[in-house]
Structures are given as C-alpha cells and as structure tokens.
Amino acid sequence: MNRTAAEKLGIKPFDAAEYLQSDADCAAYLQACLEQAPDDAAVFAKALGDVARARGMMQLAKDTGLTREGLYKALGEKGNPSFSTVMKVMHALGLQISVNPQDAHA
Q1: DSSP-assigned letters across all residues of 12-77
Q2: Is 38 inside a domain boundary?
Q3: Number of domains, the chain
C-alpha cells in the first residue's frame, strides 16, 4: 500500500468536530461560517454537520426523529438539507437562528 506523506508523518485531516466542545464554541463556529460565506448554504450545512458530529449523531437522530444516515447525508460535504431539517437540527442542538439587518457597508 502506498501511503501519503501525511500518513507517514501521522498527520490527520483537520476535523472541526474535535474542537467544538461547548455551546459557545458551536454557536461561534456557525456564526463565523455565516459571516465568511453568507451566500453559500453548503458551508453552513457542512458546519452544522460538524457540530452535529461533535454532539453525537445517534442522539441527534433520536432528538430530531431523523435517521442517522439521513443526517450524515444532509449535513455532509455534498448535503443540501431542507430548511425544515436545519431547524430540527438547530432546535435539537439547543441552538437558534437569529435574523438581523445587514450591515450597510457589507
């Protein structure tokens, strides 16, 4: 088997879920994603997936009534969750979406 240089050095790909330990961490991460890519729903969906994995997909599936596999698919790299799914996940995670006027200079 041909290993990559990263594998030979023991370097793992970055996984944001490993660093999301508190509610404040999760909220700040999602907010930062919205600010950095305000027009890219896929970035937010992927970030929400990171938060979901950090909290535990099995419990989240129970709390939302969605399947674990469905959550992974919807909140994965190529996912495109419905707004209803986003709302269910946010609620189950104890997070909320807030609406504010855009900054006039944005």
Answers
A1: PPP-GGGG--SHHHHHHHHHHHHHH-TT-HHHHHHHHHHHHHHH-HHHHHHHHT--HHHHHHHTST
A2: yes
A3: 1
Closest CA to 93 of 34, 35, 30: 30
pLDDT tens, 54-72? 999 999 999 999 999 999 9
The count of residues in the chain is 106
Residue 104 resides in a domain: no
CATH code for position 73: 1.10.260
Count the neighbouring beta carbons within 10 Å of the beta carbon of residue 26.
Answer: 23
Q: Is residue 3 part of a domain?
A: no
Statement: the pTM of the whole predicted model exceeds 0.85? no
Please report which helix (H) or strand (E) contains residue 92, including its range. helix 83-92
